[in-house]
Request: fold
Amino acid sequence: MEKTFVAIKPDGVQRGLIGKIISRFEKKGLKLVAMKFILVTNELAQKHYGEHKEKPFFKNLVEFITSGPVVAMVWEGKNAISTVRKMMGKTNPFDAEDGTIRGDYGIDIGRNVVHGSDGPQSAEKEINLFFESSEIVDWKQDIQNWIYE
Ligand code: DAT
Ligand code: MG
Reply:
């Protein structure tokens, strides 16, 4: 099954949205396979957002993601990467549909509450950046037959 990296950003943590966001992924039927509560170092932030290094918002982005604790997670499921992206909504919360995490909880693009990998390559890179392979838990979700046909 596909795995994706998801993070609740410092704004989501500060605003007390950890439980609500995790609950959405749980209710969807995705399976949590790794999770930690951490301060992202500047070095990790630079690597994580490396693709945006040349963008004008890069400095702000790194400052923001290192400004407070984040919840780093790996979720697993059929089409987990695109499912999480759909559940998050568009990058700018103003454009994100109601019912998506960013649509429901965000206003500004620089405070968009969650991160989710945008494809298989970024998922692999981001999972490996944030987690040791020993931290990914291999477990059987007993209700799986009621989620997948
Ligand atoms: P996403 O987080 O939807 O994958 P992205 O990878 O293009 O979006 O950008 C990473 C983050 O950078 C995004 O969550 C918020 C910030 N960002 C993107 N575009 C921005 C812009 N034009 N101005 C300010 N911040 C921006
Ligand atoms: Mg991205």
